[in-house]
């Protein structure tokens, strides 16, 4: 197995970084500003009940709902644009320019609209994550080879066959690239959404602990947020490898 | 040609006064490719088409397959003018064009799926054919795991499975090395004899044309308004050494001369 050896350099670097952090934090000795990694871990353990049973489920449901909406919306728009050139002309520039709007700065307005409910956070997550999914899937649908399309035509294939037998398989690798980016962004989206208005969630909890000058308790939920991002990324990677088996055998 | 009603003389492919030109998108004017061209191809013939690049050989295939429509004239396939010729012939492209995400048997099954067959039925039909095509045990491999010659055999199998009696092969062996190419030519010939199909084959290679075909069409001037035609006086089955017969060597000189003459103009 090469994967075990492959992560060794990265693991060593992280270990070195944590040791230096630990040493520096103990040297500075100001727990509320720079808590050592061991302090964060013990805080995580200490706060395990509220963190794991209250705030983690709240954030996770925002991420999962947000991503689900993004995938449906993003793939739907991508397919629609690929079917109709006039839809592409109308929507594509809007989608690109929508990314120029600082969505994070817009977040307060969603709190006004949706209140402190889960939906204000879901909207922020969706707005951040649907872009990479839409654009990648759309590019993927466009990447289908023209020669293969003509070959299918000579076999008597219609639009439906070309879509399912050529365009979708061509788009799949692009879709997964978009999804991987979206998954990491979704954690940011959920956390920011929670800062602005929430009664629960890891982002909310982290910010609340800041006001109490409890450095370790600010970091503890961030550890969990990172873990969510990493786990989701690995999950997508596994699904990708499974459905794109043909790519793995080099 | 008198109507003699013999099976062998059945016309499977016919061009009647076909005119075609490509439209230049930018300037708006059109480039004539074919001008009132007549072609007759009979059942179970092996025809090769030789000609310089850009002489309109591939355009001919695009017209036969139905990817392009003639400006004037009619194209008959098996004696009929079809509203859409798409799906009427078996087309084998220059590069194998196998789908990298499909296994070998799934790639071969593509025309059957397009025609609405069940995946499992298609699989059953394909397994014995894979054996016959020297692809036994490869059914679950992916195209990039196969050699160039093997990929071309898969591509040819896919063409055969179109079910059509007219197969159009567009320089199928041009990317292969010389030795693989020779064995593929022999292999194709046995397949053609066995399957009782009509093959139209584009090539640059005069030797390949002489070895394989009953008649050779030379694509020369542009626009093409008539084809120069050469009959190959070799009995079948043929051997590669047959190409060294004096009559064939003379014919080869003649062919090369014709092609060379056209390149200059």
| Whole-number tally of structural domains of chain A | 1
User: What's the domain count of chain B?
Assistant: 2
Can you tell me the CATH topology of the largest domain in chain B?
Rossmann fold
Portion in beta strands of chain A:
under 5%
In CATH, what is the class of chain A? Answer: Mainly Alpha
GO cellular component, one term (chain A): plasma membrane
InterPro entries (chain A): MetI-like, MetI-like_sf
Family (chain A): Belongs to the binding-protein-dependent transport system permease family.
Organism (chain A): Bacillus aerolatus
Describe the structure.
Chain A: Pfam families: BPD_transp_1. Chain A: Keywords: Cell membrane, Membrane, Transmembrane, Transmembrane helix, Transport. Chain A has a single domain, classed as MetI-like (MetI-like fold, Orthogonal Bundle). Helices cover 85% and strands 0% of the residues of chain A. Chain A is built from twelve helices and no strands. The longest helix of chain A is centred in the last third of the chain and has 38 residues. By secondary structure, chain B is of the alpha/beta class. Chain B has two domains: 175 residues, Rossmann fold; 74 residues, no CATH class. In chain B, 34% of the residues lie in helices and 23% in strands. In chain B, the strands form two sheets. Chain B has a six-stranded mixed sheet with strand order 5-6-7-3-8-9, with helices on both faces. In chain B, strands 2-1-4 form a three-stranded antiparallel sheet, covered by helices on one side. In chain B, strand 6, helix 6 and strand 7 form a beta-alpha-beta unit. Chain B starts with 10 loop residues before the first strand and ends with a helix. Chains A and B meet through helix 8 and helix 9 of A and helix 3 of B.
């Amino acid at each position: 197995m090469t994967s075990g050896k492959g992560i060794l350099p990265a693991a060593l670097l992280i270990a070195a970084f944590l040791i230096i952090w630990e040493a520096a934090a103990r040297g500075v000795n100001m727990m509320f500003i720079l808590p050592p990694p061991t302090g964060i871990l013990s805080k995580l353990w200490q706060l395990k009940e509220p963190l794991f049973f209250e705030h983690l489920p709240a954030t996770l449901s925002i991420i999962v709902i947000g991503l689900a909406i993004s995938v449906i919306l993003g793939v739907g728009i991508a397919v629609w644009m690929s079917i109709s050139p006039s839809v592409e002309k109308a929507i594509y520039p809007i989608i690109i320019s929508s990314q120029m709007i600082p969505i994070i700065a817009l977040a307060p307005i969603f709190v006004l609209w949706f209140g402190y409910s889960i939906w204000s956070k879901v909207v922020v997550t969706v707005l951040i994550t649907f872009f990479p999914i839409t654009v990648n899937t759309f590019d993927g649908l466009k990447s289908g080879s023209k020669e293969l399309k003509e070959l299918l035509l000579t076999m008597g294939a219609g639009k439906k066959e070309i879509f399912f037998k050529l365009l979708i398989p061509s788009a799949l690798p692009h879709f997964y690239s978009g999804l991987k980016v979206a998954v990491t962004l979704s954690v940011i989206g959920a956390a920011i959404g929670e800062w602005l208005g929430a009664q629960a969630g890891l982002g909310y909890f982290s910010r609340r602990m800041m006001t109490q000058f409890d450095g370790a308790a600010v970091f503890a939920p961030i550890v969990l947020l990172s873990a969510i991002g990493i786990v989701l990324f690995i999950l997508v990677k596994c699904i990708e490898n499974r459905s794109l088996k043909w790519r793995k055998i080099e | 040609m008198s109507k003699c009603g013999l099976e062998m003389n059945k016309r499977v492919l016919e061009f009647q006064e076909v005119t075609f030109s490509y439209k230049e998108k930018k300037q708006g004017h059109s480039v004539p490719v074919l001008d009132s061209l007549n072609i007759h191809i009979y059942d179970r013939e092996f025809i090769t088409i030789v000609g310089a690049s850009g002489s309109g050989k591939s355009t001919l295939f695009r017209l036969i397959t139905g990817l392009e429509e003639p400006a004037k004239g009619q194209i008959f396939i098996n004696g009929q003018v079809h509203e859409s010729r798409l799906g009427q012939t078996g087309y084998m492209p220059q590069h194998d064009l196998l789908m990298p995400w499909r296994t070998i048997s799934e790639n071969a099954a593509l025309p059957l799926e397009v025609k609405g067959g069940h995946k499992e039925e298609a699989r059953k039909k394909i397994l014995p054919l894979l054996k016959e095509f020297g692809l036994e045990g490869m059914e679950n491999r992916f195209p990039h795991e196969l050699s160039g010659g093997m990929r071309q055999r898969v591509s040819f199998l896919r063409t055969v499975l179109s079910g059509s009696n007219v197969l159009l092969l567009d320089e199928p062996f041009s990317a292969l090395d010389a030795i693989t190419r020779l064995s593929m030519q022999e292999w194709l010939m046995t397949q053609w004899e066995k399957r009782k199909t009509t093959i139209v084959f584009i090539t640059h290679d005069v030797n390949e044309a002489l070895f394989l075909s009953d008649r050779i069409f030379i694509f020369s001037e542009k626009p093409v308004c008539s084809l120069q035609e050469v009959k190959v006086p070799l009995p079948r089955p043929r051997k590669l050494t047959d190409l060294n017969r004096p009559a064939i060597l003379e014919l080869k000189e003649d062919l090369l001369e014709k092609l060379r003459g056209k390149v200059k103009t």
